[in-house]
Amino acid sequence: MKFLIIFGLILCGSIFVAHSDNTVDAQFSNQNMISVSFENNVLPSYEIPLIPGQTFTLTQNHSWVNDETSRFNLESYTLDGEKVKISRTARGDFTLNIPTDSSHDIMFGAAQQYALSVEGTNDFSYLPSSPTNDNWFDAGTAVSVNVQKTTEIEQNKVRQEVTGWSLDKSEFWNIEDDGSTSFTTPPITMNEYHQVDFFTTFQYKLNVISDFGETTGSGWYEQGVTVPIGINSGGDGLVLNSLSGWDGAEVEYDGNVAQVFIDGPVTVSAKVEKNYSLVIAVIVIPILIVGVIGIKKFKNHTPQVAVEEKPAERIVEKVIEKVVDVPEKKYEDGYDQKLSDYLKEQIESELDTMHSLNIISDSKYSRIKDML
After folding, report:
1. What phi and psi, each to the nearest 5 degrees, are found at residue 23?
2. If you average pLDDT over residues 110-130, what whole number do you get?
3. Are residues 90 and 173 in the same domain?
4. Which of 60, 92, 189, 303 has an alpha carbon within 20 to 30 A of 288's alpha carbon?
């Protein structure tokens, strides 16, 4: 009897254990799961069990390395057959909240990307821009690089000028100076890593300035060149402006011909002086001539008295002897008046010519006319 009781307890325990094992297997076989896979098998697939009633967040990197020259970048996901585009970015994690009340299938889509590096300048842009806002582009994309030809380093003193470019250090092309402010490379197909190198040179500003007239030679030049400079000093009516020298950098000059060597930013200033020679030649001397003729005419009609010649009168006559050869006086009636009228006509004719050529202004013309 005792044996039968022990056997019965053992049999009941075996049945309970068997029932418990079946219950555990049923629980796992009925648990909700999420199956994660990737288009084109760019990453291995995996599964994650879901716990009902709890929140589950799936996390996936936006970008991950493929090999030494390429990467994959997340662009979409498909949840239970419904495809959704992802806002693309180069870094960080993409997160997605998954319902736990049932099992789900999710497949991520990713684009293969290659980098395009630019060296030699920081003032450039990609055309079109990268979908991840960096220098990585989807495979098969045609990309150009637009560069500003001139980058100012120090305002109105130093700048950087782009002169050429190369692709993958295999071939070099010059960039022509066609007057445009930027240069765009031909399209580059992104099926591998590429590098664009821009070649530049520094230029320095030469400023040629003056308070009078118009200067020549100002501009941007490379270091080590010699630049001719000059000035058209002009004038103000009969008063001319004459170049007397240069201030600033060391300038080699001979008369109106000058040049300066560029070894950095340079500013030179023309020294200009007033020149009254034309006023003396056109106005003062003729007036002196007429005045002396009048003096001589007056002397001819007055009794001969021994009078000491004044120094001022001797100076006037010396000036006249140097500038004008006064014709020998002819003893005829009205000769002095005719000579005075003739000289006045010559002066008026020269004055009218200068006025018609806009050498002197209307106001100065009128003032000089009143003086005659």
Report:
1. -65, -45
2. 96
3. no
4. 303
Residue 320 DSSP SS3: helix
Contact 150, 181 (CB under 8 A): yes
Give a yes or no: residue 28 inside a domain.
no
Contacts of 229 (CB under 8 A, 6+ apart): 206, 208, 215, 216, 217, 251, 258, 259, 260, 268
290 CB-near residues (< 8 Å, 6+ apart):
340, 343, 344
32 Cβ partners below 8 Å, 6+ apart? 49, 50, 52, 100, 101, 102, 103
Q: Are residues 289 and 269 in the same domain?
A: no
Tell me, yes or no, whether 366 and 285 share the same domain. Answer: yes
98 and 118 assigned to the same domain: no
Calculate the CA dihedral of residues 245, 249, 250, 251 and round it to 10 degrees: -50
**Token couple for 185:** 């490379």
3-state secondary structure 175-225: CCCCCCCEEECCCEECCCCEEEEEEEEEEEEEEEECCCCEEECCEEEECCC
pTM for the full predicted model: 0.60
Reduced to 3 DSSP states, what percent helix, strand and coil does the chain have, rounded to the nearest 5?
25, 40, 30
Asked if residue 86 belongs to a domain, the reply is yes
Q: Which of 112, 146, 176 is the last residue of a domain?
A: 112
Instruction: Please answer whether residues 123 and 200 qualify as being in contact, where contact means their C-beta atoms are separated by less than 8 angstroms.
Output: no
In this structure, the number of other CB atoms found within 10 A of the CB of residue 349 comes to 10
Domain end (from 86, 112, 138): 112
CA angle 35, 40, 41 (to 5 degrees): 50
In whole angstroms, give the CA distance from residue 245 to residue 146. 46
Residue 66 belongs to what domain range? 33-112
What is the number of domains present in the chain? 4
335 and 321 part of one domain? yes
Q: What is the pLDDT of residues 127-174, one digit of tens each?
A: 999 999 999 999 999 999 999 999 999 999 999 999 999 999 998 999
Q: pLDDT tens digits, residue range 330-341?
A: 545 566 567 667
Encode pLDDT of 194-208 as tens digits: 999 999 999 999 999
Residue 316 has pLDDT above 50, yes or no: no
